[in-house]
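Example record

One chain of 400 residues, shown exactly as stored in the release files.
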Amino acid sequence: MYKWFKNLSPYSLFLFIVAASALGFGLTGGVLSNYFKEVYSTTAFQRGLIEFPRETPGVLIILVIAFLSGFSDIRLAMVSQTLAMIGILILGIFTPPFAIMLFMIFINSMGHHLNMPVQDSLGMSLIKGNKVGQHMGQYKGIQTAFAMVSGIVIFLGFKFNIFNFDAPIKWIFIVSAGVSFIALILLVILDLKVHRTLTSNKRIKFVFRKEYKYYYTLVVLYGVQKQIMLVYGPWVLIELLNKKTDTIAILSIIGSFIGMFFIPKLGQWIDRFGLKKLLFIDALSFIFVYVLYGTVSAGFVNGSLTKMGIPVLIAYSIFIFDHMSNQMGMIRTLYLRHIAVDPSDIMPSLSLGLGLDHIVSISCAILSGFIWGAFGPQYIFFGTAILSVANLYVAYKVRV
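Predicted structure tokens for this chain:
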């Protein structure tokens, strides 16, 4: 098996790493909301507070990358898989006190967040030729496909009681740690193949150029949109409709299945129609999703919509479409690549963008939890829809 992987081209081996990473991270991320609810009985406000240790790594990531500035992208990816594996393995073996659980979530999340800019930077360094959008769409499509596989594993595991949050050992987390370990081994093989050719850029300096102002604006706006999408979108189903892990999993499976075909096509559209037009579509998708989320959640709260039948199917459809909107994040990454003054700016700019994204995310999560409890969930979604109008302005202003 080692020889087979060793004989693959670096880019082909990278695709296997993307698949293993997506599966490992998906097995964790796909169940955390239910884990918090079923094991620790969290409220909507507490769910918002949990986002502080879970999202703080996104703020700190630029400092981590600066500290590890002598590491290549591949070795940074090794660190990310190791952290993710250790954090989730502890939660799989034990059910620790709430404070310890938050610390383990922090460790696991640090691995996840470190992987985000590193994987894109590594992928773009391995892509050859002019069809960057198409190739990026290819590996993002594989990432989505294995996110779907993780959803299938979650659905079947919880449906047939293979996985159970009432059990002393949380086997879903053990499996996730095992897959992250496989990704780590594949990264070691890739490092042996290309370490001499993919040397590390020094990343100690922060990169904040005026030429990148619209990119940073987009990532700040996305920080709000992503937080609402990842935390309070599922919470509509979990809290208002009392849906369990298997329901969330099957919806994620459907979204990922569509994304398997949508994302590669999106990469082709970027090459064909240009980034500017796709930025407009991205902005409109966010507005559409959050207006619908606000309308539906308001109906569930005031009783004008029944919690069965067509209204529930509408809520399911919004959840799926919401995931589709999230998959358009590659547009922002490719926009940065196109406007980069220096290729060495890409990695630190992705990292700084991630940090800005998460500063906003943490504040948004806590504030949104308060708004949900004090006024109602619909105001979170309507407010985000209004904010998303700024995406249209940025799409109008950018020059590619």
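Notes: Residues 154 and 249 are 6 Å apart (CA to CA).
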